[in-house]
């Protein structure tokens, strides 16, 4: 090996913030260890001066089915164009990929990056790490980073001895690694309710054993019933209100009773599924996690904990406050294109109340503020659930008013991307829009929380969870999909400053939806459809998504579909606004400009959404063409020839329950927009999926794809469906095109490059 380099460059490409966070942590640790270098997002590759890099550490995640993250598309365009064989001759690389084995092209981006860098002359100085989110990224990321520190000295010089303990950088890791358990918290528990109760001063003893007390009740003279006896007569009427602290027996103030007093014009909004009227209860009080600490033994040596993440963000309190009735603002949100506040103009529910999923179809009024074409998607900037935000604020910030009205600037040396617009922002908006409160925690977050936990037993447990020895507890934490509040509830003496959470929590991501309309049919509007996600974790604790429950509240006035023709509710008058922005159509998932081009469209469930836009577009183009009139003896036949065949493969569970866009699809068949509509019904008699129908049609598909140069579009779930469809196309090429499976797969990849086979796959 030649001369060592004097500095390193880290490049990251992040979809949800993980790769950025990991890259920046490697950067800060490298600096602490005495190395000199820089860290850039891949799209800032010009600043990074790629041709001068001697030691490159690249951290990249994947999106869709092994596609590069949105923030690295510019970088990838540059790399694709770069054919200079010796461009990276002086560069030594180490690559860390973040992927998920649930998807067929596991960590494709990291593999492609290594291949491309090597083809341009780079050599690998440390074998790539391919982390798998299905098992927990940490399982690969942590040891990969640990061993990076052994590999780096071979190619890179240190500039100083770093600022680790006693100047000895190798002690740096040990400083946090060795935690000796002094107590055996599982055998005797000096921090139990009973033990702590012994230290309560006499004047406070009467407050013990109140219902909901932190200390377990045994007999309860202060129960709801008992205390109710002392309530003065004029306050008796407030007893037994729903959600009262005092247990209801009969409840004259129940939802049903109160509904009787709702004025007639508002009656129609009662009892609708997910109506705002029904959803009154405060949902987020936090659920303590169920964890087994029997493995945590006295005298145990814990190791392998992550470093405590370095703080990059600082909250600077401003003199300004925000008035109480001012609405939350999305100004602090970092988005790739500007945010438009789009009014909801129409809503309908596409499924019946007994369907497996509830799907809503929403129309937004975008005026002329946002241009799009069928196949585009957009991002919705949805807040975290308000009751969760409130509860986290109440838990972490002693005065709620402080959190809601006081304004701050977030400052820092190298702020993570998601904090870069956080100026004049309230803590509430930071928790609403900027940080993720619902994604299962990283180990490093738990390590940070341990730093701010005062009870020794709780602190020890937190450190145990993020140690090598506590890996099954860590997995159990993640499986329970806790919110930040659940974690804080599990460790009541944990009180981190909000400031420290800003860069330790993942960024709150926008949610993306395909546009299900054509601007030719609905100028100034966009339509989209989405499923409401509600589920319970392993311990029966309810969990839900972020954007869809929020949208569901906004649009929750609409009843479930009861017949073939769902009611459409015009909600324009309600001036409900949704902050949205246009997403770059990275895969150019759009219609070919030549209408003669035949198409195969495959999209089960809400995967049909972009194709509704395609079909509306073709329908309108056909109408426009017809209105122009034809010449010759068979004008309408001649016009028809200008429009290629369209075959649609669509799937749902039961025709009567979740056949989304039923009416519209059947109209497309009737007016000739769709040549053939193939419906895969999965739960009526046999389980039939779209790929099963394709398998029945292999001859026809071959004719369309090979003889008529048809384009094949696939939209939907990246995990199962996309692979099933790909397998059928391979089968078709093996049977009819005399290729073996490897060559068939290679041809399909070529078709992806030439836009003959396009996929818009969703995690
Ligand atoms: P879904 O309701 O879960 O499923 C629709 C149909 O697909 C059901 O009949 C289901 O059958 C079947 N199915 C299940 N596994 C399959 C497999 N391996 N191969 C083929 N078919 C299969 O669909 P969805 O939840 O709407 O999901 C569609 C996907 O499209 C999601 O990943 C979503 O994120 C994505 N997407 C959403 C949008 C949007 O704008 N909202 C746009 C584009 C794509 P069984 O359940 O009976 O097995």
UniProtKB/TrEMBL annotation:
EC category: oxidoreductase
One of the GO biological process terms: homocysteine metabolic process
Ranges for domain Flavodoxin-like: 8-149
Residues annotated as domain FAD-binding FR-type: 337-592
Cofactor(s) recorded in Swiss-Prot or TrEMBL: FAD; FMN
Highest taxon of source: Eukaryota
Record carries keyword Nucleotide-binding: no
GO cellular component: cytosol
Enzyme Commission number, as recorded: 1.16.1.8
SUPFAM superfamilies: Ferredoxin reductase-like, C-terminal NADP-linked domain, Flavoproteins, Riboflavin synthase domain-like
Protein name in UniProt: Methionine synthase reductase
Species assigned in the record: Phascolomyces articulosus
